[in-house]
Amino acid sequence: MSESERTPLLSATSRNKLSAEASMASLESTPLLSSTSATPRYDGERDEIDDNDEATSVRSHPLDAHSIHSVASIKSKSSRWPSYIAMMCLATFAGVILVVAYMVPAAVEEYAKQAAVLEPTNLSLQSITADGVRARIQANIRLDGQRVQNEHVRRVGRATTWLLRELGTEETKVNVTLPEYGNILLGTAAVPALTINIMDGHNTAVDFVADLIPGDAEGIRTIANEWLEGRLDVLRLKGKADIQLKTGFISLGTHTVSESLTFEANKLPQLPEYNITKINFEESPIPDLNRTAMAADVSVTAFNMYPISVDVPELGFEVLLPGCNLDDHILVAATRTSTVAVRPQQEVVVNAHGLIKELPKPLTKVCPDSDSSPLDMFFKKYLDGETATVFVRGQKQTDSDTPDWLGEILSSITVPVPFPGRSFDNLIRSFSLSDVHFSLPNPLAEPGDPDADPKVTGNVEVLAALPSEMNLSLNVTGVAARADVFYRSNKLGELELEHWQKASSKKVAANKDHEAMLKIISRINDAPLNVTDADVLTDVIQTLIFGGKEVILDVKALVDVKVQTVLGQLVLKDVPAEGKIPVKPLSHDLAGSLQPKVENIEIINTDPTSIELKASVNITNPTPYSARIPYINIHLLSNGTLIGEATAKNLDIKKGKNSNLVVTALWKPSLSGDQGVAIGRELISQYISGFNTSITIKGHRNSIPSQPVIGEALSRLNLTVSAPRLRLPGGKDDDEKTHFIRDATFHVLSSRATFTLVSPLQHNTIYIDHVNATALYNHTEPVGRIEYDLPFAAPPGASTTPKLPVTWSLDSVGYDKLKQALGGTLKLDATATVSVRLGAWTETFWYVGKGIGASIRI
């Protein structure tokens, strides 16, 4: 109610009549003014008064006629001065009456509007009746003249209210309507009789019970929904009542009071801030349906800042979630609140119990032009920690004492309720990957194709904390994820699990060290790992190979989870998860642990400067990881100079020993010019002589054509490995199996020598075009020299050379030893320069052989 409605003095009509009564009371105390016919009327018109009409005065009251006769008697016996004085007094009072008639009502009305003060102290709803609400209203009412700015209005108002002192009302019915909505009746209130002290500064404490009856439910619904949807800018209420006034025992008649109040939407009371203090989900049996549903218990607290007290009975509500369109609301659950005690300036606690029997199909159906359902979109906001929105609508209860009118109003109002999300930053407590298998990219795949990424296969074990409010049986049946992988806060790449991977889960009970956990196990197969930063990959590989330390990779992922619940299978999309993947070091000495061995060499192609060959390689994988290599090409270097390259295709590297890995290689030192040719010649000479040689393996940008980023990372790494020693057929021990010259026969008289050669090639013939060799005894003493210019063949396996001419060193100690061993054997060494031809390729090498068993013949 406005200030105008809080005092009976607000109506202009009532002010006029009150002033008339006050004037009448004043005149009755003076015999000269006892006639009521001389009192002005305040009904909107003023009667003409003839002060000289004595007959009329006499007829109106006997006492007035007697007084006039007395005056006439005195007039005849004495001077006329008293008559003049009486006439002057009468004229003065007539002037006062005129002022009161036209000026006092407006001043009193203005005074009442500005001076009225209403202070509600308590509003309590005593009971909810079949028709409405019975409310107890307590308030303080007073007139404070200091609030009136105009001094003349303040004086007139104070004087008038001092004269009247109190105003009383009879029982009054107030109707409140909405003018802008076709004067829909918003509600009525029955206010009992009241008596109010209207003297300036005097306080009246009122305490009464009123019956409040709601009006048109449709009107209430319209206003409520417009306000909740933010479409209500201004609200104007119009109150109208017929008030019966009295002062003391004098009735002042019935007056119609009508006032309008205008509220701006931003000044209307808002929904109070609330806290959800408890959410608990658990399984609940449904005896009638012989199955189980999901029950939810929710506790909400809010602070009541208003002087309102009420006991709210049990109420039923429906909980709805947004659909694909903003206007679609999907019914999910029915809830019922317990009795709520609302007290002024105190916390209000609302406990609600809901039951979800099943998930509606529209809730889980994918929206048009989208890959998400309404349930997906709701969970995404909730799991991202954002505020989602649920809708709450009243529900009529057939088994409740709630009046029909209240259920009808509540069921027509839908309130959007912000549902705060929850942060799941610490949901994943551990994340491990075991039995890992890596697959390098397909070289034929186009960039951006999933086959162009390396792939990871392994067993994933996740330990996730179960939220305390989830007391349900949960079984994870599938997972998919999109994860960013970091090393030392730098992004390494992206791990994609677009397809569902089978999973299983097991609940781990809570103990003193941790809360309840959910252990999830899944086998991921060929998950693409898109490496985005070559520098980071280089750091990882260097740490694994050379650092000998465990590498911890950080994972930030959005995980899709299939969960089997009592409501059926749910799909939770984009669940934020963070974890760590420990990667064990490859080996403390990876290069030494590989132990490569080359077998079954086959020449594929030759030209004057290069040889392309194929070989079987045996290596030992010392790492805990396996790998599949569809294609990889690496550079071969010696002393930092490029001398060739090697290519591997469709290799499956398992843990431990790996045999018969087919590798093709291109020997072409000319790639590095004359320096490369010289270094390549020196390397082969040392290799065939049995020296310990090494080759540096280094990647390059096109090592993996579809993943140049990985190639660039490999190009920054130099892995130097010992050149694999050849294992030639025959031989008594491992050392002898590496010798190209297995034994020799020297004929002293004919000065000829023959040698047994063992070729490392099983499919190709080597031709020796020129030999310039020296046989030595005890590494230094020459025995003889061989120089031969005619080509001869060294076919696969063991073969015997032609009889090569020998020029003896007759004056040397070595020759003497040779003669002493005649008919026996002698251990000799050899140094040689050999020109070799293999297909179109030719090269000249030096060779050093030691411990060659030579048979000495005549």
From TrEMBL:
<keyword id="KW-0812">Transmembrane</keyword>
<dbReference type="Pfam" id="PF26150">
    <property type="entry name" value="LEA-2_4"/>
</dbReference>
<dbReference type="InterPro" id="IPR046368">
    <property type="entry name" value="Tag1"/>
</dbReference>
<dbReference type="Pfam" id="PF26153">
    <property type="entry name" value="LEA-2L_5"/>
</dbReference>
<keyword id="KW-0472">Membrane</keyword>
<dbReference type="InterPro" id="IPR059066">
    <property type="entry name" value="Ig_Tag1-like_5th"/>
</dbReference>
<dbReference type="Pfam" id="PF22786">
    <property type="entry name" value="Tag1_C"/>
</dbReference>
<dbReference type="Pfam" id="PF26174">
    <property type="entry name" value="LEA-2_1"/>
</dbReference>
<feature type="domain" description="Tag1-like fourth Ig-like">
    <location>
        <begin position="595"/>
        <end position="710"/>
    </location>
</feature>
<feature type="compositionally biased region" description="Low complexity">
    <location>
        <begin position="19"/>
        <end position="40"/>
    </location>
</feature>
<feature type="domain" description="Tag1-like fifth Ig-like">
    <location>
        <begin position="734"/>
        <end position="846"/>
    </location>
</feature>
<feature type="domain" description="Tag1 C-terminal">
    <location>
        <begin position="470"/>
        <end position="584"/>
    </location>
</feature>
<keyword id="KW-1133">Transmembrane helix</keyword>
<feature type="region of interest" description="Disordered">
    <location>
        <begin position="1"/>
        <end position="49"/>
    </location>
</feature>
<feature type="transmembrane region" description="Helical">
    <location>
        <begin position="84"/>
        <end position="104"/>
    </location>
</feature>
<dbReference type="InterPro" id="IPR059065">
    <property type="entry name" value="Ig_Tag1-like_4th"/>
</dbReference>
<dbReference type="GO" id="GO:0000329">
    <property type="term" value="C:fungal-type vacuole membrane"/>
</dbReference>
<protein>
    <recommendedName>
        <fullName>Pre-rRNA processing protein</fullName>
    </recommendedName>
</protein>
<dbReference type="InterPro" id="IPR055011">
    <property type="entry name" value="Tag1_C"/>
</dbReference>
